[in-house]
Amino acid sequence: MKKHFGEYIKQLRNEGGFTLTQLGAKLDLDSANLSKIENGKRDFNEKSLGKLASVFKLDINKLKTEFFSDIIAKKLYQNGCSTDALIVAEEKVKYLKKINLKQTEVDL
Amino acid sequence: MKKHFGEYIKQLRNEGGFTLTQLGAKLDLDSANLSKIENGKRDFNEKSLGKLASVFKLDINKLKTEFFSDIIAKKLYQNGCSTDALIVAEEKVKYLKKINLKQTEVDL
DNA sequence: TTTGACTTGTCGCTTTACGACAAATTTATA
DNA sequence: TATAAATTTGTCGTAAAGCGACAAGTCAAA
Question: Which 61-100 positions of B have CB less than 7 A from strand D?
Fold first, then answer.
């Protein structure tokens, strides 16, 4: 288990044998900033997930799961919020998808 | 099931028989902004959860669950992210709590 | 048709996000 | 151990997001 998404990137980078500067270039990121990300002092920019996936030939959906689970865990942890919120969130996602389907029917 | 946290506030407000202006005053919020919140056009400010809890005598932890589940659901839904992230997030929260405990021991 | 409740649009300030560069520190290797 | 590369840390400036405020609009009740 990794403490944060940055550790995951670091692992990928090391496995790929890249320096911070090399990987940074591929991700349009300063090596200094990439370092902070890997060490959990800054968050990876959500908008760059696609680039990361293509550099390492990763499934974007798996990557999103890794990334967002991190964001969510941090949010709950920092706010001292019960993980009950996760159960409720799952229901809500289902509900949002359902009403979106209905709305699409209406739009047609 | 409510579409968003704003609907939840609206329900509380109606049950309490308040106008937007009245509840807004209690929450230090403009009636216009409260209206937007109730209609999902703006998010309720996380920092005001305490006030909301005390106005309606709600358990702050329940309220947090309601609030953060909403944030999380929206994030997953908007990003087309699998709810697998929720399972992973739960593991991560456990892990964060565990390493925090260990760190506390070291600090002592 | 006036009044109160609610909604919508928009402005401006504050906070946060984030890329960039400089400088310090660590690590590797000749 | 000298030095060069790799990594880390500090900080700045701009960009974007968050959010309160006010004005002007709609809508419903009397």
Answer: none
Chain centroid, CA A73 distance in Å = 11
Residue spans per domain, chain B: 5-81
CA distance B101 to B103: 5
Predicted model pTM: 0.91
A11 is near strand D: CB distance < 7 Å? no
Among A65, A77, A47, A78, smallest CA distance to A8 is for A65
What kind of fold does domain A5-81 have according to CATH? Answer: 434 Repressor (Amino-terminal Domain) (1.10.260)
Contact flag B1-A83 (C-beta cutoff 8 Å): no
One digit per residue, the tens of pLDDT, for chain A of length 108 reads 888 999 999 999 999 999 999 999 999 999 999 999 999 999 999 999 999 999 999 999 999 999 999 999 999 999 999 999 999 999 999 999 998 787 677 665
Whether the beta carbon of A39 falls within 7 A of nucleic chain D: the reply is yes
